[in-house]
Amino acid sequence: MAYKSLLTVACSPEDVLGTVTAAAQIATAMDAHLDCLALGVDRTQVGYSYVGSGAVVIAAAMDRAEGEAREAEAALNAAIAAQSPTLRSSVDSVVTQLGALTDVVAARARYSDLTVLPLPYGKSRGVEDEATTEAALFEGMSPVLIVPPAGMKSAEPKRIVLAWNQSREALVAARRAMPFLKRAELVQIVVIDPPAHGPERSDPGGLLCQLLVRHGVKAEVSVLARTLPHVSEVLARQAVDIDAGLLVMGAYGHSRFREAILGGTTRDMLGNAEVPVFLAH
Q1: Contacts of 37 (CB under 8 A, 6+ apart)
Q2: Which residues of the chain have pLDDT under 70?
Q3: Buried b (16+ CB within 10 A) or exposed e, 231-240
Q4: Are 166 and 221 in contact (CB under 8 A)?
Q5: Are 6 and 34 in contact (CB under 8 A)?
């Protein structure tokens, strides 16, 4: 079991090398192909403009977007050149308006086993980075590996924290992460404050552990108390405590107008992630 088709998307030259390096290491380890997409985003609000200025504004915005796409493409090519010569890869570039970004990214993500992206939040990130992550997860239906600025220590993490709360999203994440889980020396299923009257009250995480073990995963269950204000903080601390190289969790979303936007727990986790985070919805 392995990922065979990987995708990474760059909206700017920032953090491209770390993200591409992580994706390339996974592709090399799993004999996969890496597709790279450089995005130039036109952020113009076309619903209104000053009389006589519309064409000028639109042309300037498109020129800027094309320039950003060229910069991102150059960064991707440079990052690919720094990888193993055995890596199979391709680089493409697209210019799109912000409103159409979801369709562009989702069309690529749907045919990828795994999408590898940088943190969507931070001083150097823009609205298009968050939109790219959401598009891959919710519309593209692809699991997403978020790589922090420090990069990924290993393409095959030896220790993995798997967040479990009995939800559909958490189960989907566990199944989609199986290529990583089966290669790990330890997968710790972390349950935080399980409900006293839930269906798994007598054995929190037990059925998931059984499922994973039957697949050859070296799994164990750890039940933790919520000793910090946010669940994401407890998970992040546990990942550091056991020296985990990957954190796996469900991606939660909510929206009245779109397919979904990242929910609070997911946003909190991605805000200051120190280890790579694997998400699936």
Answers
A1: 7, 8, 9, 10, 91, 92, 93, 94, 105, 108
A2: 45-58, 255-260
A3: bbebbbebbe
A4: no
A5: yes
CA distance 121 to 12: 13
Given a contact cutoff of 8 angstroms between Cβ atoms, the answer to whether 12 and 19 are in contact is no
Judge residue 156's burial from the number of C-beta atoms within 10 Å of its C-beta, 0-12 exposed, 13-18 middle, 19 or more buried: middle
What pTM was estimated for this model as a whole? 0.91
> CATH number of the domain at 5-147, please?
3.40.50.620
pLDDT computed for residue 134 by the predictor? 93
For tokens 């990922």, the residue is 3
Residue with tokens 């979801």: 102
Residues sharing a CB contact under 8 Å with residue 104, sequence separation 6 or more, in sequence order: 39, 94, 96, 135
Give the model's pLDDT for residue 47: 52
Tell me how crowded residue 277 is: count the other CB atoms within 10 A of its CB: 26
3-state SS track over 114-161: EEEEECCCCCCCCHHHHHHHHHHHHHCCCCEEEECCCCCCCCCCCEEE
Task: Report how far residue 105's alpha carbon sits from residue 210's, in angstroms, rounded to the nearest whole number.
Answer: 36
CB 276 within 8 A of CB 119: no
- Distance from chain centroid for Cα 256: 23
Task: Note whether 160 and 184 are within 8 A (CB).
Answer: yes
159-280 sits in which CATH class? alpha beta
Q: Where are the domains of the chain?
A: 5-147, 159-280
